Structure formats: structure tokens, C-alpha cells
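Quick one: structure for this chain?
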Amino acid sequence: MRLPARLLAVASLFLASAAQAETLYFSAIPDEDATALTARFSKVADYLSEELGVDVEFVPVKSYPAAVTAFTNDQVQLAWFGGLTSVQARLANPGAQSIAQGTEDPTFVSYFIANTATGLEPSDDFPQDARGKSFTFGAKTSTSGRLMPDYHIRQETGGAPEDFFSTVGFSGDHSQTLRLVASGAYDIGALNYAVYDKAVADGAPEVETAKVIWKTPPYPDYNWVIRGDVDARFGEGFTKKVQNALVGMDDPELLASFPREGFIPAENAQFDPIETVARDLGLLE
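Got it. Here's what it folds into:
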């Protein structure tokens, strides 16, 4: 049965208003302390809400896998992922798209840091003298804190990290890796270079006893991923609108939340190398 034109118009208005009433929820991998993340991203939520014309709320999560699960369960529709978690999220959610990345992210690097008591010195070459010392990654599914450091350890030593180091641990996040190495709980650790550089800029005491000894070759890392059904829910062209808002973010205070100098467009294919490495290491099903 066909509805009268007047009823069709009312229905269309109702659907449009319902779309407008939806809240866009976003999250981020907890690569630093949870309290710091909430403070960082609440202002980003306000910015996105103003740019997009919809309510936007930040949803904190407690772990990297929890971020992927929240995205898959539609608890969040947008997420700031690392390279590996972005691949995991897209594989679990066909139609999801990587839409933006930091200007630094196409050529990201990890730092290997060592406690000064080890006597290890900075070098352009992988620290072979680190053999037999204790080592900590960050989170188990962190691109910069585990995936790429693990890959390069294998490339440079010809074996697994457990074969090269006396002990291998997982700190949970980059900030904790820095603290553990600085305290001497682990001799060496691998972490996101931006977290370490920020600690240096902030005058954090940990950098006095935890020094950079090596950095990995560059790789693609962090990126914003959006669910494939947002246009149907928020209106046609919404994905592009979100991308434009992220790329257009130029407030230094907001960018310092990441921290990034700015954002540029991204697309799924850029992270194919991350998927390849993850499959080689058995980190993807």
C-alpha cells in the first residue's frame, strides 16, 4: 500500500530527526594511562560534536582488545587505533574504513630504550649486545610496542625474542614500559617514539635512566577507523564529513592530545604491510 505524500514527508522528517538524535561514540586504544586518555579525548569529542552537528562522546576502554571489541559490538562507531588493532577491527567488521592518520603515522618508528646501568649505548645498528638481558614489550597487540619490535628482533637475531633475551614481558602500555625500564625492573623495552619524545619534552624523570639505544625502520601505524554503517545512521556522506573534520583539526591543544602535528587522509590498503607481518607472527586468525 502506498502512503500519501503528506505521510511520506512526515516519515522522512522523522527518520532525519532520528538520525540527528543519534550519538556518535568513539574510543582509542589505551596506549597511556586511562585517566590521561579521558582528559585528552573529551575535548576532541567537543570539537567533533561541533563540526559534525551530532552529539559525540568518548568511551574509555581498558585494553587494546577491548577497543576492538567495542568497535565490533557497535559500542563505538569511530576509533583511534594502532596499525594492528585497526587491521583487527576492519577484518572483524567488513565495510569499516581507515579514514585519517597523523602526518607522522606513515613513517612511524619504535624506540628500544635501555636502563643506563646496562651500559648499552645508542647505535644505528640493532643492539646485539643486549643478548641475555631482560626485555619488555608494551601491550600484546600494540603495533609500536610489540608487533614491529617483535618483527625486527626476529629479523636481526634470526630467532624469537625469547631466544635472544633472558626474560620477555608485556608492560601493558608505553608509559609503563618507560617506567619499568627506568626503574631497572627490565633492562630494555620497546615503545612508541612519540610517548618517549613527549616524556623528554615534559622533563619526565624516567628519561634520565632510560635512554634510547636504537630505533626501528619506519612503518605505518595509528589511524582513525569508522564503521561501514554510519552513513545509513547519520546521513549520506557522514563518513566523508568525519574525515574532513579530522583532517581539518588544527587546534594545537587538540593535536597535542595524540600527539600529532596534524591529520591526513588514510585508506585501508596503506596498512596491508601490518596485516602481512601480523599474519607471519601468528597474531591474526
